[in-house]
Amino acid sequence: MTYKITSSGQVNALAALRIINKDVETTQQQVSSGYRVETAADDATYWSFASVLRSDSSSLQNIHDALGVGASKVDTAYTAMDSLIDQLGQVRATLVSATEEGVDKDKLNTTLSQLKQQMQTSVQSTSIAGENWLLNYDTTLPTSRSVIGGFTRGASGEYQAQTITFPASQTVMIDMNDASRGLLTKAVDASTLNSTGSTAARNYYLLDTGSTTGAAGSEIKLDSNTTSEEVADMLSVVDSLLSQLTTTAAGLGTMSARIDDRVAYTANMSDLIDKNVGALVDTDMDEASVRQTALATQQKMGVQAISILNTAASKVLILLQ
Question: Given CB 3.0 to 4.6 Å as the disulfide criterion, which of 50, 135, 187, 302 pairs with 217?
Answer without folding.
Answer: 187
